[in-house]
């Protein structure tokens, strides 16, 4: 597979050090006060539109509106650029086209849980759909549906009396590698109007991107997205023990006893935690870099493990997730979408069907 093999974290560390030399440490430096405004004006200029906007006087707020917390206005966000790669041989291109056009038959698709089929078709989240089913608003072939029931292609499914045009996962899912930047949230919406990774990604017409795991606000590096919920579950569920590898810069230096304690396991407020492997990879002055691998992804786990010994993580970069390594050419804010042959290899590695569903 191109650009997806696990690599050592040195390129990411070299880039991080270059960033510090060129622009200063992102943790310590202050962001420009007009960063959002500058981005907004540059976007307007690129579109050939005036950057001056005349607004109408705001209407007086009603008592109910005044009681609500203010909603931050989000500035226009620049979409991430796609990493350009050379096309493969004629044989590879032909194989990719064949996989792109391949569809499973209704018999091969089989039955699917009702809430999953409705969510996949864009009718809402699984939790929302389950609520509608519990309220008796969903029918299947004229009968009121029950939680857990299964449907197949050709069934008459209606929500509040309206027939649903279902979409079925009958083709290869899409998989995307994104180099997340510091200052981006892994969420679909933020009340404060901050930039989210979903603002950066290319839009999908018939499905939606599912984030495989998360990275916190101040963490950068490899973030995976897919249109297959089963693939996302396989990559993130604790029982599969998929490795995550990080390049960690701390203020200070670990002792031999602390390195051993990390491998043996320490206790955090939400349970035990340990690194599968951890090794020093260099550093200058008060800053030292480490390469750390663990098999779970709890909230801020890496940072909290170092804080256990009173050490501050000043830079954190994810450089690998399972079989996917952060490609050296993938710059921050860029994405690379796997081609069909690469996605097929991912399905085989994950033990999933061609369409990304779990095997029986």
Might you state the CATH topology name of the largest domain?
Pseudouridine synthase
CATH class of the largest domain: Alpha Beta
What is the approximate shape? globular
What is the typical, i.e. mean, pLDDT? 82
What is the domain tally? 2
Low-confidence stretches: 5-9, 23-68
The end-to-end span amounts to: 27 Å
> How much of the polypeptide forms β-strand, as a percent range?
15-25%
The overall strand count is 18
Question: Biggest sheet: strands, sense, closure?
Answer: 10 strands, mixed
Q: What's the order of the H and E elements?
A: HHHEHHEHHEEEEEEHEEHEHEEEEHEEEH
Which properties best describe this structure?
360 residues; Pseudouridine synthase; four-stranded antiparallel β-sheet; 18 strands; 2 domains; 12 helices; Structural Genomics Hypothetical 15.5 Kd Protein In mrcA-pckA Intergenic Region, Chain A; S4_RNA-bd_sf; S4_RNA-bd; ten-stranded mixed β-sheet; alpha+beta; isomerase
How do the strands and helices of this protein lay out in sequence?
Layout: H1 10-23, H2 35-46, H3 63-67, E1 81-82, H4 90-101, H5 106-109, E2 112-113, H6 114-120, H7 126-134, E3 138-140, E4 143-144, E5 150-151, E6 157-159, E7 162-163, E8 175-180, H8 197-200, E9 210-212, E10 220-226, H9 229-236, E11 244-251, H10 256-264, E12 266-268, E13 271-273, E14 277-284, E15 287-294, H11 301-307, E16 312-321, E17 324-325, E18 334-337, H12 340-350
Parallel strand pairs: 1-18, 10-16
Antiparallel strand pairs: 2-5, 3-4, 3-6, 6-7, 8-10, 8-18, 9-10, 11-15, 11-16, 12-13, 14-15, 16-17
Helix pairs in contact: 6-7
Region (Disordered): 1-77, 84-103
Pfam families: PseudoU_synth_2, S4
EC number: 5.4.99.-
């Amino acid at each position: 597979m191109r650009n997806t093999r696990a690599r050592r974290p040195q390129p990411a560390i070299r880039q991080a050090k270059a960033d510090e030399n060129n622009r200063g440490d992102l943790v310590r430096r202050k962001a420009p006060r007009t960063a959002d405004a500058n981005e907004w004006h540059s976007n307007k200029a690129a579109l050939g539109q005036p950057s001056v906007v005349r607004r109408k006087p705001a209407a007086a707020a009603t008592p109910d509106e005044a009681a609500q917390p203010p909603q931050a206005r989000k500035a226009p966000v620049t979409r991430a650029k796609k990493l350009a790669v050379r096309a493969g041989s004629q044989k590879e291109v032909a194989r990719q086209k064949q996989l792109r056009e391949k569809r499973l038959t209704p018999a091969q698709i089989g039955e699917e849980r009702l809430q999953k089929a409705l969510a996949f078709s864009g009718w809402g989240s699984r939790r929302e759909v389950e609520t509608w089913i519990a309220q008796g608003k969903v029918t299947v072939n004229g009968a009121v549906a029950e939680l857990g029931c299964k449907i197949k292609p050709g069934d008459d499914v209606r929500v509040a009396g309206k027939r649903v045009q279902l979409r079925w996962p009958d083709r290869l899912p899409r998989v995307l590698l994104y180099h997340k930047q510091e200052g981006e949230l892994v969420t679909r919406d933020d009340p404060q109007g901050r930039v989210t990774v979903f603002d950066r990604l290319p839009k999908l017409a018939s499905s939606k991107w599912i984030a495989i795991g998360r990275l916190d606000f101040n963490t950068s590096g490899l973030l995976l997205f897919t249109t297959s919920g089963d693939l996302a579950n396989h990559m993130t569920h604790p029982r599969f023990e998929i490795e995550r590898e990080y390049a960690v810069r701390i203020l200070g230096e670990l002792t031999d006893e602390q390195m051993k304690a990390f491998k043996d396991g320490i206790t955090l407020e939400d349970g035990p935690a340990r690194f599968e492997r951890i090794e020093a990879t260099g550093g200058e002055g008060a800053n030292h870099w480490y390469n750390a691998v663990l098999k779970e992804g709890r909230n801020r786990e890496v940072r909290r493990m170092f804080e256990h010994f009173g050490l501050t993580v000043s830079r954190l970069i994810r450089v690998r997730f399972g079989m996917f390594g952060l490609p050296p050419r993938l710059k921050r804010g860029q994405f690379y979408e796997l081609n069909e042959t690469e996605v097929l290899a991912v399905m085989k590695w994950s033990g999933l069907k061609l369409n990304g569903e779990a095997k029986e």
